[in-house]
User: Fold this.
Amino acid sequence: MKWVYRIVALIAAIVFIAPLVWMIVVSIKEEGMKIVTLVDWFTPPYSFAVYDQILSGTKLTNWILNSFFVAFCVTILTVAFAAMAGFVMSKLPFRYKSFMFFLVLAGLLIPGEAIIIPLYQVAKDMSLLNSYQGLIIPVLASPVAVIVLKSFFDGVPNDLLESVQIDGGGTWRIFTQIMLPLNRPALASMAILTFIGSWNNFLWPFLSVTNDSLFTLPMGIPTLMSSYSEDYVKPMVVNTIASIPIILLFIIFERQIVKGVSLSGIKG
Amino acid sequence: MKMSKLRADAQALLFLLPFLAVYGLFTIWPMIKGVEMTFYKWTLIKKMKYVGWDNYQRMFNDPEVWAAIWHSTIFVILTTPTMIVLAISLALIANRQSRLQKLYRSVFFLPSVLSVAVASYLGLFVFQPYNGFVNSLLHLLQLLPANSELFWLTEENLSWIALTLITLWWTVGFNFILYLSAMQDIPDEVKEAARLDGATDWVLFWKITLPHLSPITKTITMLQIISSFKVFLQIYIITGGGPLDKTRPIIQLIYQTGFRKNDLGYAATMSYMLFVILLVLSALQYWINNRKGANA
Assistant:
């Protein structure tokens, strides 16, 4: 039984990693070699010439930077906005609170994909197409993040807040010095999920940007690939270069990412 | 908290303002604007003319729309159960005591961090005939005769299989982690006690682990249905919606109608249909989750 488990586990792991290994191996294969069997992909001659070609001859690195820049801005602002809103809805009394709550809950039901056509028109009317602002601003409101963070903020005892207030702390201080530090894991979890979401966001950049200096990876890659017909090496070089930064990030932050994902399952 | 009511309201508004401004302008307003668009002939350049219910009538009689909705549904049917089974299986593997435990966790999650475009193009080449990874592997293992090829991307049934496999590989990581952490929540004493009573691994899985996973399974199932229904880029890259539009999902049709055929009004109308479908699915999810809460 133990051996069956070990073999199944090993096969599963190999199946998961094999496409990535193949991607890297093909990417360093010299171009134009005759391939008869699978083994031929793995044998020399190797060459990094295509890497040079792609790094200097295309906008791929530019698009990687764009992807990181957009994802970074979107993550910081989305989580900040959601935390502020979630804090108010959890801890501050104000009129129309239940209406607000309803409005945000309703947002959970509105899929971005279903309003993308009118969103295009709205962004066009506001001259937001073809700009970094246009890539970033329209996606900053995340009702999911508001609801999740609110539910975490609800867990902070009111006594604690009141004791700070007696000490003369204002609302902003309560927010920045108690609520945010106490809920760091929840904020990190939201940040990670937002980052991955933005990293993979395709539909909105695809519709709103036509200038190739503003492309993010999900749009840039298809543009590049469509010019490489019948070729394996160039596309795999593109794939490899595009994946290296995010894989490195994954290796560095694996523990946090895994924690963040599992935390999202508890309250989400 | 002691404050004058007006001041409290003003303060709350300040905190809410950034979120509300973006939410109002780029979610609520487009939703309202979208209703207007459905009643017009509306191109990428400008609003053309009022057409009443024409767009709706056209939609309900448009076989392409129903075909696309059916293709998205096929994708849901193919990916949801397989996703659940695969995620649970991988979690079982990574949950066993082993020196490689951590490695398994990383390897199963790794594809999830790839960009959707990378995952799709990798899939496209992995399933290419002749020199693609899968076909050459099958040749090497002699599972496929040397002179025959499987055309994964141009044959209707095979393309569905390829699309499903690629999507599972790329996205199972998240659900795998959710299951893994749910499994690790099962107290060791419960398992020990069951073992002392002579329960085998098999019994342990069916009687203890699986029931414990049932709440998270409900959530994952509904979320998977919704996200599979919204599939677009994988299919767009891998099969282009082909062969002969036989795998084209609804979002691709909306995109093509709006931006290729220059008919935003009609595309907005289809978006509303999609909206209603997703609304029903979300409501269903909400209902299932709440019923679960009531039972607990």
User: Anything to note?
Assistant: Residues 48-267 of chain A form a domain with the MetI-like fold fold (CATH 1.10.3720.10). Chain A touches chain B through 97 residues (CB under 8 Å). Chain A is about 75% helix and 0% strand. Residues 233-267 of chain A form the longest helix (35 residues).
